[in-house]
Design goal:
Order of helices and strands: HEHEEHH
CATH topology: Ribosomal Protein S8, Chain: A, domain 1
Distance between the termini: 30 Å
Helix content: 55-70%
Radius of gyration: 14 Å
Structural class: alpha+beta
Shape: globular
Largest sheet: 3 strands, antiparallel
CATH architecture: 2-Layer Sandwich
Number of helices: 4
Strand content: 5-15%
Number of strands: 3
Length: 81
């Protein structure tokens, strides 16, 4: 399993609106996902597992999706449950 994780561990530049960048960074830090957010630089994120990839996707969706899209996703989640 460790060899699989080392193969997918990558550092990515994440394009986030400058106004949301700090909040995205803070949330990723709370999730213990390695990332950096330097002044006037893009957010960089280290994806080290499939779970981290899903968490990053979820955080990005929270900040980039419209309110209606978020409501629809929540409704679908409740229907599936």
């Amino acid at each position: 399993m460790n060899s699989f994780l080392s193969q997918i561990e990558q550092t990515y530049l994440v394009e986030v609106d400058w106004l949301d960048r700090w909040q995205v960074y803070q949330r990723l830090q709370e999730l213990e996902i390695p990332c950096s957010c330097e002044a006037n630089q893009p957010l960089t994120v280290e994806i080290s597992s499939p779970v981290a990839a899903i968490q990053i996707w979820s955080v990005m969706k929270q900040f980039t999706a419209s309110r209606q899209d978020l409501i629809s996703t929540l409704k679908l989640s409740w229907q599936s449950y």
